[in-house]
Structures are given as C-alpha cells and as structure tokens.
Specification:
Strand order of the largest sheet: 5-4-1-8-9-10-11-12-13
Helix content: 25-40%
Strand content: 15-25%
Largest sheet: 9 strands, mixed
CATH architecture of the largest domain: 3-Layer(aba) Sandwich
CATH superfamily of the largest domain: Ribokinase
Number of domains: 2
Number of helices: 16
Length: about 475
C-alpha cells in the first residue's frame, strides 16, 4: 500500500501549462491560419510540478523545490499546487521568468503551442543545494525531474546528498549526457532518449535491447535503468538480476503528455512506501496506462490504481467514451424528484451525448440532511432517475460510515467525465471533483435552478401545511 507519511522531495524544472480551448470553424481573412473561438481556459502544473501533482493525487507527502520568476504565473502555479497538497519551496530567479507553455486546442486537437521561458542555469545553485539539504533530512526519496531548463545544471551534489542521507535518487533524464546522473538509484529515459544517449542504433528484439542497456548502465554508473517503451511497456535492467520486461496496460492512447511524469512520480512513491523496485515499476506502468487514455497532463488517483473491478455502469461508460461520446456527469440526493430536478437534468444532458448521475446512498443522505431523510430510499430514487429520458446511468456512492464518502470525488475520478455539472448555487471552486475534471481537460459548468423548487423547500411547505391543518382541526 502507498504511504501517506513518507516524504518525497522533487527538484526540477517546474512549469505552468495554460490551455485555451474552443472551436476553429473558419480561416482568418488576415492570414491563412485558423481562427480559434476561445470558449474556456485552464491552467495546470507541468514538468516537475506535474510529477509533484501525481504524487499528491495519490495521497503522498511531497515537497517541490524549483526556480520560478517574480511574476503572477509563479503565484498561480503555487496556488494550484498548494491546494492539491504539494508543499512548494520555490526560489525566485533573478533574470528568468516562470516557464509557461500555452496551448491552443480545438476538438481535443492541439493547434498551436507557445513557450515562454528563459534558462535557470545561471542562477545561484548554492542556495538551491542548501535548501535541498534541509529538505532531505526527513525524506524517503529524491526525484530529479530534468527538462533541460537549468534547474538541474549542477546535479552531482544533489545525488551525493541523497546518497549520504541513505535515500534513493530517481531521475527523469534529459539530453545525451547521462553520466552527469552517476550514482543515481534509477534513471527512467524513454526508448528514444535511451537510444540517443547510448548511441546505439535500434535493433530487433528484446535481447539486443537488454544487452545494450546493460552495457550503458555500467558506463554511466547508475544502479538501475528503467526504459519506458510506449506501447511496448517497460524494461528494467539492474546490476545482477535478469532484465524485467512488462507489457503496457494502456487500452486507448489519446495523449502521452505527462506520462513520464506519472511514471517517475508513482515509482518514487512506491519506493518510499517500501515496495520492491519491480512492484513499484508494475504500479507505475499501470498508472502510465491510465494517463495516456486522457487528454493533456493528468494525475492518477488511489481509486484509479486500486479501485478494483468496475461495475456494469462503469464498463458501459468506458465503452461509450471509446466510441467518442461526450460524457456529462452530475450528482445529488434527488430525494423527492420535482420539476426543477427534471429541467436541470434535461439541461445537463444537452451539454453532451450521455448523462451520468452520482446518487447519494441513504446513509449519506442521513448524514447530510438529518435523521428524517431520505423520504424515498435509494432504490426508489434510483428507479425514478433511471426512468428519465435525460439520464443514462445512475451510480450510487457513500454507503459506508466514512464522512469523506459523502462527496462524489472518487466516482467522478473513476468516470472521468468530459463535463461536470452542478446548480448555479455552487461556484466552480466549490464544486467537488472540479479540479480532477479540469486537470483531465474537461469542463465544469453550472446551470440555473428553478426558483423556489427544492426538496427541502417542498418538505418545509408540507410541514407548514400539515401544521395548519392540524391547528384548524383543533
């Protein structure tokens, strides 16, 4: 099981990924380029920050050490990470701005990318090393996430500090000089990066790849070499045991953005949780298979990895998603179904092709609404909802006594809807599951409610009417 107490320190190039999402239906009259009509925008952590986000999403205790600029983008990145549970120890660069990558998307396709970045190689790395030494005191693993932006320009002292502290260093390398990572416990290049750094030409068969990897591992003086191979899975080569090959678990590949971040984050958390290297590798491979099936940089959750067999509804939803259906999701108690509910659900369904309703269990409704609720039990509420033309699936949640289960966050994460919807009495920042949906590239919307119509209000009116009748009778 993954530890929530073992601290992991990440040092690397933190970035802010900004997305402009809309529709491109015409060509500009000014130049032969498409015009994107922007409908929404979102910002998510990238680079080393995405590694930290992946660890935090799995409940890990993580600290991110990185350079940022003296700008609003640094504040934005810090707020997103801190709200997700990442402890940020940022150093403000003197001559560089925060790295921002701006992408324009239409119909899930990237039209344009603009990079706003300088280089951190000339910064005061002595200050970075001092900060790292302080953070490593109670750490269980060090992750070096190298995107060749200069944060890891002087990486050798970092690896030596970790070795002196008796903790493993896991490196996501960059460039062709892997000898600079000598002494690391694990480096995790993809196959293309491995080929470039090793100088070996591609050859047929796993045996040839293993032979090349063994020679290269010894030449760069690292303990273990983990090569990620895309649709062919992963290969692990250590100092003694035979190479370990595992197949990919990806069923559909929509976007490989950030998959390497997920691999190294899950691998580090597994090792910090006292897993064997092979077990941590298998878990990282499973996580990579999940994130490549989502759009944009994405973080896996504990429910993604350990949620168990999906029920019939989730299986059907997955099939619909693979067919290209746009999945809309909402949640609630829906105790006494009324016209406001029906209108709301019909409007929600119009935002996509299929509608999923996450429905609070009876125990959950009691905890939220009081001992007199629900008026209608779960099966009755589910049956009525499922009979509505707008509703395709109803999935219950909150059966146990854990108060945290009264939110639909886990089931929203598992469904991974394209659109998450709540009533206009919520704001985006108060909608449970909004962050998870936005991080996957989805939308979060609010819909107007019918004034004066709510289960609570209807029950209150009924109580007033009953009291009035009783008083008249007396």
């Amino acid at each position: 099981m993954l530890s929530k107490e073992a601290k992991i320190v990440i040092v690397g190039d933190a970035m802010l990924d900004r997305y402009l999402v809309g529709q491109a239906n015409r060509i500009s009259p000014e130049a032969p380029v498409p015009v994107l009509r922007v409908r929404s925008s979102r910002e998510v952590p990238g680079g080393a920050a995405n590694v930290a986000l992946n660890i935090a999403a799995l409940g890990g205790k993580v600290t991110l050490v990185s350079y940022v600029g003296a700008d609003d983008d640094a504040g934005c990145l810090s707020r997103i990470l801190e709200s997700a549970g990442v402890r940020c120890r940022f150093l403000t660069a003197t001559h560089s701005r925060t790295i921002v990558k701006l992408r324009a998307l239409s119909m899930h396709q990237q039209m344009l990318r603009l990079d706003f970045e300088d280089d951190f190689a000339c910064e005061d790395h002595a200050a970075l090393h001092a900060l790292l030494a302080d953070e490593l005191v109670d750490a269980r693993a060090l992750v070096l996430s190298d995107y060749a932006k200069g944060t890891l320009a002087d990486v050798k002292p970092m690896i030596e500090m970790a070795r002196s502290s008796g903790i493993p260093t896991i490196v996501d390398p960059k460039g062709s000089d892997f000898q600079r990572y000598a002494g690391a416990a694990i480096i995790t290049p993809n196959e293309s990066e491995f080929r470039q750094a090793s100088g070996y030409a591609a050859q047929e068969g796993d045996a040839a790849l293993e032979m090349q990897a063994r020679t290269f591992r010894e030449s760069v003086n690292v303990e273990n070499l983990l090569v990620t191979r895309g649709e062919r899975g992963m290969m692990l080569v250590g100092p003694t045991a035979p190479a370990r090959f595992i197949a990919t678990e990806a069923k559909d590949v929509f976007d490989v953005t950030g998959a390497g971040d997920t691999v190294i984050g899950v691998l580090a958390l597994g090792l910090a949780s006292d897993m064997s290297l092979v077990d941590a590798m298998v878990l990282a491979n499973r996580a990579a298979g999940i994130v490549v099936g989502r759009h944009g940089t994405a973080a896996v959750t504990h429910e993604d990895l350990f949620g168990g067999t999906e029920g019939d509804a989730l299986t059907e939803i997955r099939a619909a998603q693979r067919s290209g259906d746009r999945i809309v999701m909402t949640n609630g108690c829906f105790d006494v179904l009324h016209a406001g509910h029906v209108q709301y659900l019909e409007e929600a369904r119009k935002l996509g092709d299929r509608l999923v309703v996450a429905l609070n269990s009876d125990a959950s409704v009691r905890r939220l609404k009081g001992a007199s609720r629900p008026v209608n039990n779960f099966e009755h509420r589910r049956t009525v909802l499922a009979a509505l033309r707008a509703v395709d699936w109803v999935i219950g949640f909150g059966d146990d006594d854990d108060a945290d289960r009264d939110t639909p966050r886990a089931i929203i994460t598992r469904v991974a809807p394209d659109v998450l919807v709540k009533g206009a009495d919520y704001t985006i920042d108060t909608i449970v599951g909004a962050n998870e949906v936005l991080l996957r590239g989805g939308e979060v919307r609010t819909l107007d409610l019918v004034a004066g119509l709510s289960t609570t209000e209807l029950l209150r009116r009924q109580q007033v009417a009953d009291a009035s009748i009783k008083e008249s009778g007396q």
